Amino acid sequence: MKPRVSVQDSALRNGNFSLRIDPVWSEDAGLYEARVAYNTEVHSCQVKLGVITVTLSPPIPVVENEPLLLNCNSSHQASLVETCWFHSRHLVPTSRTFCSLHGALSILRPAMSDAGFWRCQLRYADNEIISAVYNLQILGFDGPSNPVVYAAAGSAAN
């Protein structure tokens, strides 16, 4: 896993034998065990790492008015019960524009107003709730609804 993994050597003296993984990949999910031997004592602990991913299809760049699919997956083993999507902290209801099914959100005609942070929230049969955020960027025209601009002769126009 090198060079994505590090241990803070200076923290070991204080009893902190934390492992840092940056960035985390889907394949990193699983059980990790740390063992530390000091003099005649051996200490160990286990940590289970779960990973959640949000993917975009088709891959970037997203163009205004072209359909897209945001997919949310987790390494959690229980049955998925519910998926909720939030945009700018507001719950996104299913509509003609937004369709949610089995962890995925389909946006049929993405607009510039759909750009920004999207959060998927997965709820499982064992009541575990897991969420992740995706920053959606959309290429398009973010101007006035009437694209006619008047400028005085001899002046500049943008």
Please outline the helices and strands.
Layout lengths: L4 E3 L1 H4 L6 E3 L8 E9 L2 E9 L2 E6 L4 E2 L4 E7 L5 E8 L2 E2 L6 E4 L2 E4 L8 E9 L4 E8 L1 E2 L19
Parallel strand pairs: 6-14
Antiparallel strand pairs: 1-2, 3-4, 5-7, 7-11, 8-9, 8-12, 10-11, 12-13
Widest β-sheet, arrangement of strands: 5-7-11-10
* CATH class division of the largest domain: Mainly Beta
By CATH's scheme, which homologous superfamily of the largest domain applies? Immunoglobulins
Structural class computed from helices and strand pairing: mainly beta
What amount of the residues lies in strands?
over 45%
Q: What gyration radius follows from the Cα positions, in whole Å? A: 23 Å
**Number of spatially distinct domains:** 2
Number of helical elements: 1
Q: Mean pLDDT, as a whole number?
A: 88
* Total DSSP E strands: 14
Give a quick account of the main beta sheet: strands, pairing sense, barrel closure.
4 strands, antiparallel
**CATH topology (level 3) name of the largest domain:** Immunoglobulin-like
Unreliably modeled segments:
none
DSSP helix fraction: under 10%
What is the general shape? elongated
| First-to-last CA distance | 50 Å
